[in-house]
Amino acid sequence: MFTFSLTLIRHGETQYNRDKLLQGQGVDTLLSETGMQQGEAAGRYLTDITFNNVFVSNLQRAVQTAEIILRKNTHCSGTEMVLESLLRERGFGIAEGRPKEDLKNMANAAGQSCRDYTPPGGETLDQVKLRFKKFLKLLFERLLDEHGWSAPDASAGAGAAAANMTAAAATDVALDGSADDGLQGVSVHALVVSHGAYIRVAIRHLVEDLKCSLPPGVKMSHLFSPCPNTGISRFILTLIQSESGPVLSTARCVFTNRKDHLENLTAAE
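The structure assignment produced for this chain is given below.
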């Protein structure tokens, strides 16, 4: 077995976010001043987590966020940042650059919910999910290639992580807690910086399709809610070897959409 943690973070705010405009893939903007402050807050929150591998969407807002987080980290100064197009935001076709309200109006005109609607030229949710599945395959192979099945504590990680989660059950770990929640007994940690719609699809795939176990008492409305800028989610994944290569054996959600690190920032605005 091979157990590792997967920490997902959405990029910081851009001016398009603030103005409620859709970015998708076609609008490639940098962070706003608030977005940079959010990235720094996320970096301080995660400062003591040793991320062995870092994967980042190759859109500027994600790259800039990851650079800020790594700069604030006490252990990751030399960690390679892998830019990965599979982590790009959902493509919104002709709606990109336009107000989010326009997308809602298009969806209403088509008789569909906004989440399920695909504007002309855009990606369907299934297409985004396929990209995430391809990324997981790449992630599994990359981690095993670098760390091997015999990584320290890897085989013991699943049991230790499960014990840690049981101990955390007395608190609402899904909403607040320590930056190292779920990491005890796990020696390999992967950081992924991506986008709001993409992360929402990824979490739904992990929970609904891959039958990821959930923290006790977590509300599904929180689990699948839109991820805030620099919102943090974490999963503990265990792989086993099969004839076709590494496959997921178990997955556990530690928390989703955590934003503790933004509290002082919000109060200061």
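Interim note for the steering committee: Confidence is low (pLDDT under 50) at residues 153-174. The longest strand covers residues 245-258.
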